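ok so for the tutorial part 2 we go from a plain amino acid sequence to predicted structure tokens. step 1 is just haveing the sequence, like this:
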Amino acid sequence: ERVLFGVADVREIKGEFNISPPELLHGLDRAISIAIPLNLKILEGCVDAPTLHYRHHYRQVNLLLDQLSLKIAGWIEERGFKSLPIPASLFIDWKSERAHLSHRKIASLAGLGWRGKNNLLVTPRFGSAVRLASILTNMPLKAGTPMDDGCGDCEGCIASCPAGAIGNTVDDFKRELCFNKVRE
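step 2 — the prediction. this is what the tokens look like for a chain of 184 residues:
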């Protein structure tokens, strides 16, 4: 109930993945997306910057996602299929802001939510206060359907962004301002 799962067909976006060696992706045309919500009271404590409490919570939720991914990957392999769990939070190149893949994009394709003005996945139940992980697989799972943009006229994230990185549309998001704030 507090964990969201979905399946995405990733054939169209596999070229965007940064998996090495690329041969690992052969036949892995589905991705299971897992989302776990963050604790809202802990998030409320982050006024100007992340708190120690938040940093611990963030790491623990990522650890839980990674553990779930490993268990699900094992379950898939026990049934004769292949799987490749992707860590919840792992940059392969911090300077160029590159990761193995976009968990956000996979979750969106799986129908867990939509990409909001804040450039994050926004879920109907938990908003954007979720952490994500993905498992690539060749298991023939039925893919979900992407959701339409649910932000509408809401601009709550624009006013609350400490970096001033959020604009009126997804395309107005200023990634560099956001990452400069994160680096602080």
